[in-house]
Amino acid sequence: MKNFINKLLLTTIICMVAVFVSVETGFASETVKLGVAGAHSGDLASYGIPSVRAAELVVKEINSKGGVLGREVQLLVEDDVCKPEVATNTATRLISQGVHVVLGHICSGATKSALGIYNDSKIVTMSPSATNPGLTQSGRYPYFFRTIASDDAQARLETNFALDVLKLKKIAVIHDKGDYGKGIAEFAKKFLEESGRAEVVLYEGVTPGAMDYSAIVQKIKRFKAEAVIYGGYHPEAAKIIKQMRKKRMKTIFISDDGVKDDTFIKVAGKNAEGVYATGPKDVSANPMAVAANEAHKKEYGTEPGAFFLNAYSAALALLNAVEKAGKTDYNAVSHALRTEYVDTPLGKIRFDERGDTIGIGFSMYQVRNGVYVELK
Amino acid sequence: MEYFFELFLGGLIRGSIYALIALGYTMVYGIIGLINFAHGEIYMIGAFTALIIANVLTLHGFGQISVLILASIAAIIYSAAYGLTIEQMAYKPLRRAPRLSPLISAIGMSIFLQNYVLLAQTSDFLPFPCLIPDFEFLAPVAHIIDSSALAILVTTSIIMVLLTVLIKFTRIGKAMRATAQDRTMALLVGINVNRIISATFVTGSALAAIGGVLIASHVGQINFYIGFIAGIKAFTAAVLGGIGSIPGAVLGSLILGCTESFATGYISSDYEDVFAFTLLVLILIFRPSGILGRKEDQKV
User: Fold this and answer.
1) What residues of chain B lie within 8 A of the CB of A272, using their CB?
2) Which of A17, A278, A370, B13 has its CA 20 to 30 A from that of B272?
3) Contact check, Cβ <8 Å, A214/B17
């Protein structure tokens, strides 16, 4: 019975889509339709609203310069409340309105459920904020792109830094057993093993909040690890680094965004010196980012919220790709996204085969004289 | 072999940390049979007091030793005052209530104190200065043991001896033992039971404050939540050793510390807690009242 309903539902959707596609082709010459989907209400609205505003600003600017392909750009905004079960409806609504490219969705879960529908209708989608690695890496969504680095990018940067810059051979991977920390540590371990250039001498989780990490520190020493890659947050990192330095160990410490926090430097004090941590690339100096933030302040009177620059860049990249492709056809657009560089507030970007951005992401920072310094 | 000794030493230090807090649990339990869940919070308040006093004194240019002594004294007085107040407010009115009521009251007190410090101070982690000076004679073995770890080991041993002397050979100790054995009878022979109980809380809280200063100085960071985590482990250690017994609390703590250290060192730190609590379960199966705990006589 359930199967039957599912099939019925699918048929209905396909019929609806088919009808609207045929209707849409009739009026195609009018506007280029940019859909914006995400949480615009509910408790996660603060993540979604900035992307709507970013799209509004970009569209306004592009239209003032004559639009895309000589046609005006039209915005279609649909709310998915960050819920996977709503997101499919949101996607269907956008498609039924004849959307050409979609900026969205915001949350990884909602994005995933909506992608199936965009995929079937061959609509190019670009998220400013969904970081789940599987969205691009599974290869199931060839028309999906994103302007934010996926969770494994930090691990990739950490391992590349350890292998190429520091040229380490023996590395201990430690995590705090949490979703975030363990996730990154798992990737780091995988990348190190795949490279074959360094040995993971230790892979273990520590109990967060424990008063003493001397046993694990002793173990790091015993396995003669040259460096520790730590996945987790700063309180435990500060304790581990303190105990290592107390034992006169000079082991290099490499960690992630959870440690790239000024509280870490405050708590670990002089022990923090020389610690490496990955963090989002500093784009505050980029003139386009400054201009985008200024435009937001002028238009809405407030500072832009989360993922504003990512969404701004995504909107620019999508419309630029349509312009470069010369048509709204999904193959041409995704080809343009993968081949043409575009200037955005996040820097000069294009996309790789999987849909992740080349040219954005994380930078390696090091504590020097009590502050995090970006390493070039 | 060296690795074994290093792990063993690490376990002893960890165990001594637990012992400093476990002693307070076990003392209070021994006298009035109450698990004082707010004890971990007293430890946390002691550490916060020491941090504030130490920062003020350092600002005024006091030397490291005088900062350590003055901050510890301030922490002891402040924590003892808190211990006494908690006893008077949360436990004394419930002295004749069923056993569960003071337990709930203790949990409430614990939550209250955590949030009180959270609001009055901060939710952030704060750096705790190393109050213990670097001993020069430790320089050759600095890679094995540092001065704060040594201070913890030594202090725990001294406190255990002093406490045993206090309970075995002094007047107040005798009164404590009498109260523990039979409160009504102690009252009848002229012991001021309420004062004895208060004295127990004051002693236990002072110990927690010393623990707070030493441990925070060893770990190097504090926040409002440290008391809860420390309290849970110390309580486990006290139960392991036989709650109510002072040597038991120290023994239980050392066993727990060494088990965790060896489990991490030889197996995996992923299973550190698993081994610690498996040990607890095993010991409680064979010795339900803990390693050194006395079997409670059924009162007819």
Assistant:
1) none
2) A278
3) no
Token reading at B61? 């240019």
Sheet holding A357-358, edge to edge: A342-344, A347-351, A357-358
Nearest by Cα to A320 from A109, A193, A138, A145: A145
Question: Cβ separation of B265 and A218 shorter than 8 Å?
Answer: yes
CB B75 within 8 A of CB B209: yes
Given pLDDT bands bounded at 50, 70 and 90, which one contains residue A10? low
Nearest C-alpha of chain A: how many angstroms from B28? 23
pLDDT for B251 = 94
Q: Residue with structure tokens 């339990």?
A: B29
pTM of the predicted model as reported, rounded to 2 decimal places? 0.77
**Rounded Cα–Cα distance for residues B64 and B249 (Å):** 32
The DSSP call for residue B97 is: S
CA pair distance B107, B36, nearest whole angstrom? 8
Closest Cα partner for B237 from B228, B229, B248, B226?
B248
99-128 of B, contacting A, C-beta below 8 A: 124-127
The pLDDT score that the predictor gives to residue A22 is 46
Q: Enter the ipTM.
A: 0.89
Span B40-98, pLDDT tens digits: 999 999 999 999 999 999 999 888 889 999 999 999 999 999 999 999 999 999 988 88
Amino acid at A366: Q
pLDDT mean over B158-174? 92
| Chain A residues whose beta carbon lies within 8 Å of the beta carbon of residue B14 | 211-212, 214-215
* B209 inside 8 A of chain A by CB: no
Structure confidence at residue B153 (pLDDT): 92
Average pLDDT, chain B: 90
* Residue A302 pLDDT class (50, 70, 90 cuts): confident
Cα gap B70→B121, rounded to integer Å:
21
Task: Give the burial string for A262-272 (b: 16+ CB within 10 Å, else e).
Answer: ebbbbbbbebb
> How far, in Å, CA of A15 to CA of B49, rounded?
71
Tell me: pLDDT of A26 over 50: no
